[in-house]
Write a structure and sequence with these properties.
Blueprint lengths: L1 E3 L8 E7 L4 H11 L5 E7 L6 E6 L4 H10 L4 E3 L1
Antiparallel strand pairs: 1-3, 2-4, 2-5, 3-4
Length: about 80
């Protein structure tokens, strides 16, 4: 599931996380948070992957900020 939020800024980084996301409903809930965040150009979740990979094209959000957002909705994640 891919979401394009904003046009990429001049300096972008790809952040990759292993998560505890399990269902499309959780992805939709996550979308309601990530789509509002400044510093995220696009993001995707690989539900078919055993690690439920979250990839974020970042133009200014840090890994710690992403972790804090996900922890607020009881989704565990760690950078890989």
């Amino acid at each position: 599931m891919n979401h394009i939020v904003n046009q990429p800024e001049s300096t972008t980084h790809i952040l990759v996380f292993k998560t505890s996301i399990q269902t499309p409903v959780e992805v939709q809930f996550l979308a309601s948070l990530l789509d509002k965040q400044n510093g995220i150009a696009s993001w995707s979740v690989e539900l078919d992957d055993w690690e439920k990979i979250l990839r974020i094209e970042s133009g200014g959000i840090s890994p710690d900020e992403v972790i804090a957002i996900l922890e607020r909705i009881n989704i565990q994640c760690k950078p890989i």
